[in-house]
Amino acid sequence: MASRASGEALLEGVPDVDIDDSGRFKYVLIKVTAKDGASKRIVRGYSFAEYHADVFDEVQPGLSGLGLTAECEGGGRIEHSESTKTILVYGYSVVSSAWLRMYNNSYIYYNA
Fold this sequence. Notes:
- The protein has helices at about 1-10, 50-65, 95-105, and strands at about 15-20, 20-35, 40-45, 70-80, 85-90.
- By secondary structure, it is an alpha+beta fold.
- The chain has a 5-stranded mixed β-sheet with strand order 1-3-2-4-5.
């Protein structure tokens, strides 16, 4: 039972969402799993990324360094404006609905 708590505690230290402040860029939905099986999904999106894999490749080593495994479940595109508090999530991926649930928790002061 103690290992379950430590995996969950480790996952709590990983932010649910980390995206650039503004611009149009690619994002990925990543399933992060601790050694004890505890898991959660996170979203990462950065404007430097030409491809979705570039985002995953940026994030995966840091998660691995924490003893977590990462699996890319999909992605899409985001248009984000911190100044107007708007986010547009689009693309062909079925993960968009998962991202929107996370968005509602992480950007509660934004316009949908």
